User: Which sequence fits this backbone?
C-alpha cells in the first residue's frame, strides 16, 4: 500500500504493479497466438497432397477468435484495473497514517528505493508494450496477406472456371461446326484474295509492259496482315510501283489510227499493170469488185475480210500501244438509213513494243466487237456520240497478226438496205493509248 506520486497523481505501488501485470498478460496472450500461428505455418507436402489448406483454414479461424477475444479481454482487464485502483485509493487514506508514523530515515530510504523500482517497472512496461505493438503490426500484415491470398484463390477459381467453359465450348459440336465453317470460309476468302492479287500483278505487268520483280513473294504469303510477307504489304508495294512508273513515264496519251478498207486492208492499187496511175473511178471500180468477191464469204455467209496491224505505222517515239475504243464509218452512195453495223474481231497474236524497248507477245481469247457505224462523216440524228464508241477491245494490243472485218447482210437487218456496189470505203478509227519515249 505504499503511496507515491506517479505522473502527477498519487497511486499505490500495488496498483502500479497490477497495471504492469495486465500489460504482461495481454502481451503473453499475443505471443501465444504468434506461437500457434508459427505452428500452422509449418505445413508439409505428403503422399496424399499437402496439409497447407487445412493449416491456413485453422490459422484464419484462430485469427478471428484472437482478435475478437483480445479486445474483450483488454477492456475487461482495464475496467478491473481501474476499479481496483479506485478501491485502493479510497483505502489509501487509512493506510497512510500508519506509514507516516515511521521514522523519517526509513521513509527517505524507502521512497528512493521504491521510486527507482517504479521507474524500472515503467520502463519495462514500455518495452513490453513496444514489443506488443510491433507484434500487432505483424498480425495486421499477416491478415492483409491472408486477404490477398483469398483474393488470388478466388481469381484462380474464376480463371479455372473460364478455362473449363472455354474447353467445354471448344468441345461443343455446334462450336466445332461453326469454327470449321469459319476456317473454311476464311481459307476461301484468303485464296480468293491471293488470286485477285495475282491478277493485279498481271495487270501491272501488262500496263507497264515489264515483269514485276517481287511476284515470287506472292507465293510465300500466308497471312493478310502479319508476317514478313503479307497481302497488305504486297498490294501496297504494287501500288507504289505503279506510281513510280507513272512518275517516270507520265500518264498514257490517247491517239487515233485510221484503217481504210480500200487502202489498208484490200490494198486497192494506185498503179495499173503498166505502172501508170489509176484514176479515182478506176480504183473505186477495183475496190467494189474485190468487195463483191464471193471468196470473202465465210461459212455463215458473212463478208469476212482478214487484215493485220503493226506498230511500224505508228510514231516511233511511242511505246505500249493499247486499244482504247473503236469507231467505224461507211462511205458510199446508197447506204440506206442512218443505222448500220459491222463486226470487228480480233483473234491473232498481239505484240507490244514496251517502254524497255522490248517486243512482248500476247495471245488473248477471240473477241468480237459490234460497231454501230456512221455514214459519210455524218453521225445522223443521234444525240450522243457514245452510240458509235465501242470499248469491247479496250486494253488489247493495237498490233495484232489477225483481225477480221465482218459485214453481215445475211441476217443483220439494219445492213440489208446498204448497197455494197456503191460503197467507196469503210474506215475504222482505232483510238489507242501509248507512252512517249523519254
Assistant:
Amino acid at each position: 500500500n505504499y503511496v507515491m506520486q506517479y505522473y502527477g497523481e498519487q497511486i499505490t505501488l500495488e496498483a502500479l504493479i497490477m497495471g504492469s501485470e495486465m500489460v504482461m498478460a495481454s502481451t503473453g496472450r499475443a505471443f501465444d497466438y504468434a506461437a500457434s500461428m508459427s505452428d500452422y505455418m509449418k505445413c508439409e507436402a505428403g503422399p496424399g497432397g499437402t496439409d497447407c489448406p487445412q493449416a491456413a483454414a485453422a490459422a484464419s479461424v484462430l485469427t478471428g477468435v484472437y482478435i475478437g477475444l483480445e479486445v474483450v479481454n483488454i477492456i475487461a482487464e482495464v475496467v478491473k484495473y481501474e476499479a481496483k485502483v479506485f478501491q485502493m485509493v479510497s483505502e489509501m487514506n487509512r493506510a497512510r497514517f500508519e506509514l507516516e508514523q515511521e521514522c523519517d530515515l526509513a521513509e527517505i530510504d524507502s521512497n528512493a528505493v521504491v521510486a527507482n523500482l517504479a521507474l524500472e517497472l515503467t520502463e519495462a512496461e514500455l518495452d513490453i508494450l513496444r514489443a506488443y505493438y510491433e507484434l500487432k503490426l505483424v498480425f495486421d500484415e499477416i491478415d492483409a496477406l491472408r486477404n490477398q491470398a483469398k483474393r488470388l484463390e478466388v481469381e484462380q477459381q474464376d480463371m479455372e472456371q473460364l478455362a473449363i467453359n472455354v474447353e467445354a465450348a471448344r468441345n461443343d459440336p455446334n462450336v466445332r461446326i461453326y469454327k470449321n465453317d469459319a476456317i473454311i470460309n476464311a481459307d476461301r476468302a484468303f485464296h480468293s484474295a491471293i488470286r485477285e492479287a495475282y491478277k493485279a500483278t498481271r495487270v501491272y505487268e501488262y500496263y507497264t509492259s515489264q515483269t514485276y520483280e517481287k511476284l515470287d513473294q506472292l507465293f510465300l504469303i500466308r497471312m493478310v496482315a502479319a508476317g514478313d510477307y503479307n497481302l497488305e504489304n504486297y498490294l501496297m508495294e504494287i501500288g507504289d510501283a505503279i506510281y513510280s512508273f507513272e512518275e517516270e513515264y507520265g500518264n498514257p496519251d490517247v491517239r487515233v489510227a485510221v484503217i481504210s478498207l480500200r487502202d489498208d486492208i484490200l490494198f486497192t492499187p494506185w498503179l495499173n499493170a503498166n505502172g501508170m496511175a489509176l484514176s479515182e473511178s478506176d480504183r473505186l471500180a477495183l475496190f467494189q469488185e474485190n468487195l463483191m468477191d464471193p471468196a470473202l464469204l465465210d461459212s455463215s455467209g458473212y463478208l469476212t475480210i482478214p487484215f493485220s496491224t503493226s506498230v511500224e505505222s505508228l510514231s516511233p517515239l511511242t511505246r505500249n500501244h493499247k486499244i482504247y475504243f473503236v469507231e467505224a464509218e461507211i462511205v458510199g452512195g446508197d447506204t440506206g438509213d442512218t443505222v448500220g453495223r459491222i463486226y470487228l474481231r480480233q483473234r491473232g497474236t498481239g505484240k507490244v513494243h514496251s517502254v524497255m524497248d522490248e517486243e512482248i507477245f500476247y495471245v488473248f481469247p477471240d473477241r468480237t466487237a459490234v460497231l454501230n457505224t456512221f455514214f459519210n462523216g455524218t453521225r445522223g440524228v443521234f444525240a450522243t456520240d457514245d452510240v458509235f464508241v465501242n470499248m469491247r477491245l479496250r486494253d488489247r494490243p493495237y498490233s495484232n497478226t489477225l483481225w477480221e472485218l465482218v459485214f453481215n447482210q445475211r441476217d443483220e437487218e439494219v445492213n440489208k438496205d446498204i448497197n455494197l456496189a456503191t460503197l467507196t470505203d469503210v474506215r475504222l478509227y482505232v483510238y489507242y493509248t501509248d507512252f512517249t519515249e523519254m
In short: Residues 349 and 364 are 7 Å apart (CA to CA). The first strand starts at residue 3 and ends at 6. The chain has a mean pLDDT of 80.
